[in-house]
Every structure is written in structure tokens, then in C-alpha cells.
Task: structure prediction
Amino acid sequence: MKELQRRIDQMIIHLGGYWRPLSGLARLLEEVGEVGGALYANDQSALREELMDVFVISTCLANQYAITLQRQEARNGQEAQDKTYYRLVRESGEVGRILNAYEGDKKLKASATPGSLQRHIEAVQRAVLDLASQNDFDLYAAIVSLIEDKSSRDFGRFDHTPDPITEASVRAYVAYVEGRYWGGVAAKPFEEASRYREREGHLTRFLKIAEVEGLDGFVIRQPEPPLQTNGSLTAAFQLPDSFVVETERHGADSFLIVRKQG
Result:
């Protein structure tokens, strides 16, 4: 599954980049509705297309939160097809509830359960695979063909949207260090650290969800000359007391890593 996530990531970059998470969620729910429409119309061709769309979009959402999914397999049970679809709707709603708390107006509860997003995305994909199996459809083989097709055409189809999983800073850092990291926009030479913080929206999102989602850190690649500050970077970045800034050097690059203490 890790390789499949990597290939979907490459396909999305080829197409122009990820949607904002709430836009991705809206697209996921749209496609889940279209799965229902295909089932209602008994349209096998449309059903296959929509199941693939749900699988790919849910994988994109996992990629955007640096989640490594476990490969799901269809179960050979006797569950009625309508029950399987209801399960898909239920789990998609759970993904929506979590992302609304992460990115929308819903308040993120202090008691939010770590790992919930991964579990519900995997449950979405399990329902998709069960529906595919009930309709004699080899979903994984079709997804590979879809990736190969999309990756050979449609370059730049989507408008580029900045995303903390595709910033050059994090792509460079994870080449050296494994983990679940987000990255910041490019810093400018001699830029004041406080000014960088003002224009860096990803960091605000990271601070909100890092603990509950289990993100390992937020990566800023130092420019040359580096970010400037008259005091501490912790103060310049307006970090809560529970977060620290660490400096790491890998190869020719110097990185600032914002992490949860402990």
C-alpha cells in the first residue's frame, strides 16, 4: 500500500497538486453519492469508475496528513450490497467529521482520539473493496492502470494549491529522515522570522492538529543567509509552550523543525 500511495502522490503532483483538504472531502462525498447513483441505476461501468474515484481521493486525503495506510482486502462475507454502501456512507461521514474539526469551523476536542482519521479512511477503502468484490471488479489492478494512464497525460490539469505535504522543504527533509512531517513555504534570505510566520499558514494548521494526528514535526528549510530574529525562534513563530524549534543539518541543507516537546 505504501508503494501505491507513493504512485498516487506522483500522479497528483503530475496533475498539478492536491486540493485543499475540505475541497478533497467535498469531492469524496460527491463520489460516494455517485457510487449510490450507479448502484441505484445498476450501471456497472459507472460503479467501477466511482469506486476508483473514492479509493484515489481517500488515499489523497491520507497522503495530505502523512498517513501510511494499511492495505485493505475485500471480505468474503454475505453482507447485502445496500448494507455495504451504507457502511461506506457512514465511514465517509466520520472522515468528514474529523476533517471539519481539523480544517473547518467544528471545534477540535481535547479528547479527540489519535489515529481516528487513518482508521476511518481505511474503513472507507474496505467498504469500497467489498463493493468491488460484490460486483466482480479487481479494484487494485484497475487503480494501477488508472495511475499509468493519468501519469502519461493531463499534465497540470489541476490548479496548483500550496499544501504542506508537497512543499520543497518537506520533500527535501524526508529524503534524509523518515516520519510524518509537514513543510513550510520557502523562506527568503534575510527574512525576519516573525514576518515569515505571518505569511506561513501551514504552521497554524500544524499546531492545531499535530498532537492528535501524530505528526512528527513541521519543516522549514533555512535560506542562505538564514531567517533573522532578535530573540528566540519560539517567540518569533508564536509557538505554544508545548512546542520547540530544533535545528538540523542534512547534506548541504539546514532545517528548522517545529516539534511537540517530549
The chain has a mean pLDDT of 90. Residues 22 and 99 are 7 Å apart (CA to CA). The chain is about 55% helix and 10% strand.
